[in-house]
Amino acid sequence: MSNQENDNKQDIEQDIVEESETVEVEAAEEVELDPLEAALEEVASLKDKLLRQHAEMDNVRKRSERQVADAHKYAVEKFATALLDVVDNLERAVETEEGNEKAVREGVALTLDSWYKVADKFELERIDAVGQTFDPHFHEALSKMPSDEPEDTVIAQHVAGYTLNGRLIRPAKVLVSSGSK
To answer: Which of 105, 153, 159, 165 has the least C-beta neighbours within 10 A?
Structure first.
């Protein structure tokens, strides 16, 4: 074999070796890219899930806000509907003929009775304070005056107080005894 053939053969062998090394390096890079691509795909998938969860939470928040707003808006609907009977009775009392005071009194009594039924239905309780010891949590003292009753006893009530489900919504306005003088 000639030198030239020998050199060609060596060049070919060297090219083959270089190509093999290049293929091995490219294969190694592909192996390295595969985990990177997999990680990138996983990141994209997790990002998508996160965005969907945020959207879902935002929808839940908006739905809850809407439900709370509706609950506040229509909270007294049943109570207002129940009061319509009271209004009907008051209108009938106003429409009675002149000189028929007995019918007006009966109408007002019926109206008051229907009011008590509505109040009972919705746990609206009247505070009758006369004869009780003054309690600032349920009574508002308008004044103190001498009386035969013991000191701090409610002797008169100008306006009844009310509680709704046990919570004070209006105190009873009362006169309180300062004791005898």
So the answer is: 165
Same domain, 60 and 101: no
pLDDT in tens, 98-136: 777 787 888 888 888 888 888 888 888 999 899 999 999
CB atoms within 10 A of CB 155: 19
Q: What count of Cα atoms within 13 Å lies in the side-chain half-sphere of residue 79?
A: 10
Mean pLDDT of 19-36: 62
Same domain? For 134 and 165 the reply is yes
Give the CATH number of the domain where residue 165 resides: 2.30.22.10
The DSSP bridge partners found for residue 125 are 163
Judgement on whether residues 106 and 158 belong to the same structural domain of the protein: no
Closest CA to 168 of 128, 141, 138, 130: 138
Residue range of the domain that includes 32: 1-73
Q: How far apart (Å, rounded) are the C-alpha atoms in residues 35 and 27?
A: 13
Residue indicated by tokens 């003292």: 141
- pLDDT of the residue at 59: 95
**Cβ contacts of 173 within 8 Å, gap of 6 or more:** 139, 140, 142, 157, 158, 159, 161
